[in-house]
Amino acid sequence: MTYSYSAYGLTICSDIELPGLVALDPQSVEAVDLTIVHGAVSTTGLNAATLVKPLSQFDGQALWFDVPMIGRFLVEQGQQVTFESYPGVSLDSIRVYLLGCCLAAIFYQKQRVVLRGAAVSADDKSCVLLVGSGPVGKSSLAAILRKHGYSILSDELCVLAPDGEIGKIVPGLAQLKLWRQTLKYLEVDVDAMARVRPEIEKYFLPVADDFCDSPRAVSTVYILNEHNLDEFVFEEINGFAKFQALTQFTYMAQYIDQLIPAKVHMKQIAALANKVRVVRVSRPDRYFELDELIQRIERDREQGVQSA
Amino acid sequence: VTVSKVFKVLSKQEPQELQEQQEPQEPKLFWLASYPKSGNTWTRAFIANLLNEEPDPVDINEFNTGHIASNRFWVEAAFDFDINELSQDEIDRLRPLAYQWASDEATEYGYHKTHDAYSYVDPERQIAMFPPSATAGALVIVRNPLDVLVSYAHHNNATIEKTLEHLNSSEHAMCGKPGRPYRQLRQWLWSWSEFNRSWMQAPVTKKIVRYEDMKANPVQTFTEIATFLKLPNDHERVSDAVDRCRIENLQAQEQQTPFKEKSIVAKSFFRKGVVGDWKDKLTADQVRAILDHHHDLMLELGYIDENGEPL
User: Fold this and answer.
1) Which residues in chain B are contacts of A66 at CB distance < 8 A?
2) Which burial class, exposed, middle or buried, applies to A147 when counting CB atoms under 10 A from its CB (0-12, 13-18, 19+)?
3) What does each C-alpha distance from B2 to A56, A118, B116, B201 come to in angstroms?
4) What is the mean pLDDT of residues A235-254?
5) ipTM for the whole complex
6) DSSP alpha helices (H): ranges in chain A?
7) 246-275 in B: which are within 8 Å (CB) of A?
8) Is B137 within 8 Å of B229 (Cβ atoms)?
9) Cα(A196)–Cα(A40) distance, rounded to whole angstroms?
10) Which own/partner pairs from A124-128 qualify as long-range (CB within 8 Å, at least 24 positions apart)?
């Protein structure tokens, strides 16, 4: 049995269920953009690998990787992901990789750039992109902004729209992935939530009621940063530094030049940089200082809209 | 243990092609291993200044001698999949591969701070988190736990009693709570004795230095450190580097520019750096709790006499 879904503007046919994606009637599917196959994946990698790392290989077109005790994955042609799971592994663990780096690799093979972050929208035209290195509260901030009336456009993978829609992000999945501590802060009953994987205390928060289902133009990119000072600092970035800053938040940047030419990546990032405000936000290095951050971001957004 | 062997153990496979492609490499990673507040940053300041050819001291935020071992991005760089949704135990099992890969890719030596105890991610197969095949050497920096206690409490803005629990606990870890993310990977420190013993017994080339000797005889001790770390060790350069990273200079810099490694809850990172500060700060019961718990290693390292009295 195969399952059909829509996500990130793709029609996906999968050998396994993918909860959280919009299900399609298989009979109505005419063209498939991505096929997910549960099948044999080489234990040794690619036949003509051009780059070999401890648990991954590239051959200029395909990506092969092996996550110990979870599964092996092969991403090819921008069209197909094949996975083989290790005995006893939960499908939840497999899905994390299918809908994370495999999907990102598919987009790169399709010559489209993916940023790591969360995108939220306060109106029917634009969105705000929250990026940052490592766990700096991107998804948490998106969840809190949702409580302030924003809708969720995407979390984790923020996929740039195709050429015709420069500067837009396509809708992702109608869910946020949040750690237990964030859910407690949001006063959500953690025990009623589904875990992302059995091994970690991270959960899916469904956001279908506040989901933004069409592409949105990015108005502002907030680069979230933590520092060990007791103050909030908002610093607008201009010129070439905008391009440099956005480049830094490319999802799995090591895929660049392996799955997508660097100049294609550069061109798309430059096009985005030309259209958006980029603001670096440094906040005290405490896990939750988010309410004040929200107020300041809203104030900054208003100022940004006025000056635009 | 080569990458291929670690790979084989971790994934239960025999990657023939990888084995064929991997040539033995000279290990490139030096570990600067210490319990917190034992002189690790001072050592990195020394290395940075020793290698610096500019006339001014190196900026305290620009030591850049090498990534800390628990740097999430450094470990992730070895892999082409996301490690953010792996458990801390799962990430620990990947770390030997990451360090081996980093060593194999390196063209020059790196000097990497670590507060991780020397542990085995697979004790049965003796797979060490810090593979001997990637390890050029381990500089183990030890400091009297009585002074560590005072300084570590200050660093965390915690009470002496709470910090005492850490120093005496086999479960002590940093960034270890499971329900939230951290910028750094989990680091198992264990107790003060267990941490230092683990590195002193590690099957790698190592040198053990005492913070107290770095303070008392800086040029001599840092010359030995430079020699061990395969760094320039001539008297003039070592003396100059030692002078540039005197505690007063580091403090003066921190007053001008916040140090990025300072905890947000601490007033400053470079506090006193003196030997014997504990005498004015600890109660007799607190001293006794340390002596009782760490007697053997304190005796071995010369922090107490044969009667168990602090020296």
Assistant:
1) 11, 13
2) exposed
3) 17, 39, 21, 21
4) 95
5) 0.93
6) 91-97, 103-109, 138-147, 180-185, 240-248, 262-273, 290-307
7) 258, 260, 262-264
8) yes
9) 25
10) A125/A216, A125/A217, A126/A216, A126/A217, A126/A218, A126/A219, A127/A153, A127/A169, A127/A212, A127/A216, A127/A217, A127/A218, A127/A219, A128/A218, A128/A219, A128/A220, A128/A221, A128/A222, A128/A297, A128/A301
Q: How many CB atoms lie within 10 A of CB A109?
A: 21
DSSP string, A68-96: TTTEEEEEETTTEEEEEEPTT--HHHHHH
Each residue's pLDDT tens digit, A50-87 = 999 999 999 999 999 999 999 999 999 999 999 999 99
Q: Is B157 on the interface with A (CB under 8 A)?
A: no
pTM score over 0.90: yes
Q: Where are the beta strands (DSSP E) in chain B?
A: 29-34, 110-114, 120-122, 127-128, 135-142, 173-174, 187-188, 206-210
SS3 state of residue A53: strand
Contact A196 B84 (CB under 8 A): no
For residue B82, give the nearest of A281, A200, A185, A80 by alpha carbon.
Answer: A200
In this complex, is the C-beta atom of A284 within 8 Å of any C-beta atom belonging to chain B?
Answer: yes
pLDDT in tens, B40-64: 999 999 999 999 988 888 888 888 8
The torsion angles phi and psi of A126, rounded to 5 degrees, stand at: -120, 175
- A140 by DSSP, 3-state: which? helix
Residues 6+ apart with CB under 8 A from B217: none
> Which residues in B146-173 are b (16+ Cβ under 10 Å) and which e?
bbbbbbbbbbbebebeebbebbbeeebb
Whether B178 and A201 lie within 8 Å, measured CB to CB: yes
Contact B94 A52 (CB under 8 A): no
